[in-house]
Amino acid sequence: MSTIEKVDVFVAAPGRNYVTLRITTSDGVTGLGDATLNGRELAVAAYLRDHVAPLLVGRDPARIEDTWQYLYRGAYWRRGPVTMTAIAAVDIALWDIKGKVAGLPVYQLLGGRSRDAVLVYGHASGSDLAELFDDIARFKDAGYQAIRAQTGVPGLAGSYGVRKGLIYEPAATALPEEQPWSTEQYLNFAPRYLREVRERFGFDFHLLHDVHHRLTPIEAARFGKEVEELHLFWMEDPTPAENQESFRLIRQHTTTPIAVGEVLTSIWDVQQLITEQLIDYVRTSVSHSGGITHLRRIFDLAALYQVRSGSHGPTDLSPVSLAAAVHVDTAIPNFGIQEYMAFAPETLEVFRGGASFADGMLHVSEEPGLGVEYDERLAERFPYDPKYLPVARRLDGSVHDW
Ligand code: CS2
Ligand code: MG
Questions:
Q1: N or C: which end of the chain has fewer CB within 10 A?
Q2: From the CB of 314, is ligand 1 less than 6 Å away?
Q3: Is the pTM of this model over 0.85?
Q4: Distance CA 321, CA 319 (A)
Q5: What CATH number does the domain located at 4-104 have?
């Protein structure tokens, strides 16, 4: 029987900080997992190195479910982004190994194709409307059928979601940048600019918007109602989702579809949102919610309630995550859409292979396993560079959800 012989955790910054797990079996088969948690990378790296790796050596790599249960229940302390990202990295790596041993791409182990390709959405942004419109035009010219639109709020410096240069990266400072926030100014502006986007570009593409946890439920209800006629594909994270029942209030007032889940890390954290149909898309990601094994459980629960997938997938999830996500997206019946951002060139030098982009869609790798290789030698040239996500403060100086 093949056993797990070696567990390596690589922390490097090719394009941005990534934590990559590599598991090697006694037969020399390797599997990769993504353990990146933006702004808290070293917490997951230490959790893996110090508390998980010693438990894995000698285990049967084929026992993916047993390893998941062992790491989840055996930790005693459950859930949360650090634990579930560490478990996810191990899970993804073991699925990679299982695919390589079977000589099959992972999606084939998940039931085979349910679709030919995976619809993605791109991220158009601009510090003002003119820049946003130019960016939307660029994404439409590049073949994107779904585009998220974010722009700065006049009078507020550093609004959420505005890309600086080619690659979007919100974790950009050695200590958290403090950004001002005004709900009133946002609510007076966002519905207006989204309407101008529809007036300029029409309705022949999916338009998405990320509220990014910034509103109270009734404010989110107002926002959803005001943009209803714009037929958004979704409004994302309209209000913080720790209190899942707060979405009942939004649902009472608007039919604008709702997407939630990128900061939620287990089926229990989205259980009420799904079973009460308080959301339309669940955005849990393969690398922050326990890996392929647990994400499948979440999407299967979601399928019972006609909730579709909409997995998180910005560049602070590595190409290993994106590859694993597209294997899952290719196989599940209730796929909705996959978030996708182009990686930096350095990232693609270190992480080779995986899903490929064409005509607004991602195409799954047919290589055995996930289809991604990690060049650890080249990665060493890009040392870890600690960065924090911003913190938002209201105009009275109190902390708000960033
Ligand atoms: C955003 C993320 O892509 C999204 O929907 O919410 O970019 C999020 O801000 C980052 O992943 C935080 O690291
Ligand atoms: Mg988001």
A1: N
A2: yes
A3: yes
A4: 5
A5: 3.30.390.10
